[in-house]
Amino acid sequence: MKRLYGIISIAMICMAAWITSCGPVKDCDEVGQNFYQSLREGDINKAIQYLDHEALNQTPEDIWRQGLLQKSNNLGMILNIERNDFESETRDNVTRVTIKYKIHYSKATMFERLEFVERDSKYRITFYKFDEDSTMVN
Asked: Which of 51, 73, 95, 118 has the smallest set of CB atoms within 10 Å of its CB?
């Protein structure tokens, strides 16, 4: 019986590794990493390019720009990015992915959530939330 549980555990780990290494989650994580790299470099304009029109309709570009700049000033430089969790859902031929990160800044550690949508075979960020408390970004 223990052997069966061991085999199932290994299969689940392999499946999780396979899921995270290809497809929508990998593509979205790449967009997320590029978004954070732009912020790390202080290139807010480049970071804005990763946003979907859905995000820009909800919050105007100048507010995004102002908020990202203020966040950078308050939290300092991005030192490390850790992907913690993800979810993926396809409904009516539209794939949406949520990835949660733990971001280490020079002045604080934040838990952050990026949500992505696929449009025209590209993923863009539709939502961004961050907090010092990991339960607040669920």
From this structure: 73
Q: Is 86 helix (H, G, I), strand (E, B) or coil?
A: strand
Please state the pTM of the whole predicted model.
0.82
Q: Give the residue ranges of DSSP H helices in 51-138.
A: 53-58, 61-75
| 3 state DSSP class of 67 | helix
Residues 133, 102: Cα–Cα separation, whole Å: 10
Q: Mapping DSSP to helix (H, G, I), strand (E, B) and coil, where does residue 92 land? A: coil
Give, in order, the Cα–Cα distances in Å from 20 to each of 17, 26, 27, 55, 130: 5, 6, 10, 25, 22
> Which residue blocks in the chain are alpha helix, DSSP H?
2-21, 23-40, 44-48, 53-58, 61-75
The stretch 37-63 carries a mean pLDDT of: 96
Q: What is the radius of gyration, based on Cα positions, of the chain?
A: 17
| Token pair recorded at residue 64 | 């995004």
DSSP state of 107: S
Average pLDDT of the segment spanning 42-60: 96
Q: Report angle CA 31, 36, 39 to the nearest 5 degrees.
A: 130
